[in-house]
Amino acid sequence: MKESLRTSTLLFKAARINDYVTMKALLESKDIDPLVRGDFEETILHVALLNGSREVTELILDKVPALINVPMTSAKYRGETPLHIAILRQDVKAVENLLQKGADIIHARASGICFLPGKESLCYFGEYPLSFAACTGSEEIIRLLIGHKAPLDAQDSLGNSVLHVLVLQEDNDMVRRVYDLLTVLLPQMFNYLVQKQKRVYWTMGPISYCIYDLTYIDSWNDQKSVLDIITSSRNPQVRNLLEVKPIKELLNHKWHSFGYKNFLIWMCSYVTYIVIFTISCIYRPLEPVTPGESNSIINMKQKTLKDAYIQQEDYLRLVGELITVIGAFVILISEVPYLIRMGFKNYFGNASVGGPFPLLMVGYSILIFVIVLLRCLGNDNEAVALSIALIIGWCNCIYFARGFKMLGQFTIMIQKILFVDLFQWFCLVFVIIIGFTSAFYIMFQLLDLRTYPQFKDYSMTIYTAIELMMGLINLPVPVDVPSPPLTYIIYAIYMVFVYLLMLNILIAMMDDTYWRIAKEREELWKVQIASTILLLERRVPWFLKTQSGIPGSSLGFDDHKWYIGVEEIAEFVPGKGQQQGMKLMRSGLDWNEIRNNITKIASTQSYSKPTSL
């Protein structure tokens, strides 16, 4: 007995201090039991990995390969395998070695009281090796485990998958990094959860009619549905959820039965409205200027409010103006609450949801009310506000390109180019233009400015520099009047630096943006359609809304739920024959919990003709 105890002590000591020679001699001896366990039911392989004894670990795996999947059995560390220990130590080489030698990543579960929530808990990492790796933040180990087919949908004894456990961690930076790795497979994980809820209504050979529960997926009476999460997330991987079968079919049904028709009505109404506004502006009340009252440039002036509505055509124009004001009020009360609910950053920064267009619509509405005030005061600055409002109003028509597959991608391209490429480029060019403008202005200060009118003041010099940059004019100096040689030198440097270099950089940036978005145009268009459907559902009057899907009562299911039916074709297996009738699949998944966790995960990152989605 004493000899056996002494031998086991030597084994564990050799494993702990990485004594390769002693361990080899002991393992080759016929008098020792390599499966001996320690005080916590650990094996010598557990001890070697825990102490980083790499050479001894290799030796044990070669001599006693049966230890590779042996778990600890004590109440505190029950189920902890050598792979769990290697992952906790973030020993990439040890993990790779264990996986190559057949370590179990499917059934290994560390379920001791040390690893479960409670008073004696040291950590809660989800029991499975992949969950351990995700919670420790080791990206290399995560890639290794995923490469060896670690199950992403595995649920521990508390029902939590790797994503559930991940969102419980406090290190947000680590969570974001791991999330980037795992969200590539988010559609497959979500699809697995959806398939668990699927009910097969009938089958006939390889064809099945499957029923999917729309609870927490459809946006009907749910402000935090899966559709809302998809459209509001900036993570490109989340957009892949649109390819999951029930979501794809639901959006297709919504667009054809409700969305496309109402979208066309909305678009035609807005175009008609903006045409009425334009006509009202063209025929605004003007009268000739009294001789001597103003300079020779201005020939017409704004009529007073009293004189603006006298003749019959004035009242016809008044109808158009009233329509314009009412429309601006409707736009304001529609956009502002939605803008507040979504948040300025999320709404303005997400091109698929709307980008800058909602903000422009609010600005347009405010301008209309400013125009009304200026009209009442008889202020001539009304023309300035009208001009800006007309530009914004017509530019907002671009928003409706999203309803057509051929044009939808261009709205996102325009937004990306304007607010990313052009903005960055302009910040650099502005500094350069100011520098060269100052140089031109200083040089021409000493000359006769009647000969050089384009440089008569600083603002005019800036305008001239911009014209030169765009190649609209040549250097505006008279040929027959000698100019300082330095002028031509600075002009040549300016044209090479700004006209040749900076403009071509801008073209290259825009070209890169175009092709990057062109690769994702199908996916981006689907997100645009999804966000448009959600927007219409929340703005269309209730009596025009129709809920998508099939009520559960008509299928003999839950009366309070709605379902969508999808025909699926599976590979026909000869010999099984045909199966008909209803087959129900029960599942204990908590969809409310799933929805909440998907929301947390997504938030850490931070049809010219109706076409099927």
Features:
613 residues; Serine Threonine Protein Phosphatase 5, Tetratricopeptide repeat; 4 domains; four-stranded antiparallel beta sheet; two-stranded antiparallel sheet; 5% strand; disordered C terminus
Helices and strands in order, then pairings?
Elements: H1 2-17, H2 20-28, H3 44-50, H4 54-63, H5 82-88, H6 92-100, H7 129-136, H8 139-147, H9 162-166, H10 172-182, H11 186-197, E1 199-204, E2 207-213, H12 226-232, H13 245-282, E3 286-288, E4 300-302, H14 312-342, H15 344-349, H16 357-377, H17 382-395, H18 405-444, H19 458-469, H20 485-519, H21 521-539, E5 550-551, H22 552-555, E6 562-569, H23 591-603
Antiparallel strand pairs: 1-2, 2-6, 3-4, 5-6
Helix pairs in contact: 1-2, 1-3, 2-4, 3-4, 5-6, 5-7, 6-8, 7-8, 12-21, 13-14, 13-17, 13-21, 14-16, 16-17, 18-19, 18-20, 18-21
What would you note in describing this structure?
- This protein has 613 residues and is mainly alpha-helical.
- It folds into four domains: 2-194, Serine Threonine Protein Phosphatase 5, Tetratricopeptide repeat; 196-243 and 549-603, no CATH class; 253-403, no CATH class; 415-521, Helix Hairpins, CATH 1.10.287.
- 56% of the residues lie in helices and 5% in strands.
- The chain contains 23 helices and six strands.
- The strands form two sheets. It has a four-stranded antiparallel sheet. A two-stranded antiparallel ribbon has the order 3-4.
- A hairpin with a 2-residue loop joins β1 and β2.
- α1 packs parallel to α3 (44-50), α7 (129-136) runs antiparallel to α8 and α13 runs antiparallel to α17 (382-395).
- The longest helix is centred in the last third of the chain and has 40 residues, at 405-444.
- The radius of gyration is 36 Å and the shape is flat.
- The N and C termini lie far apart (74 Å).
- Residues 572-591 and 600-612 have low confidence and may be disordered.
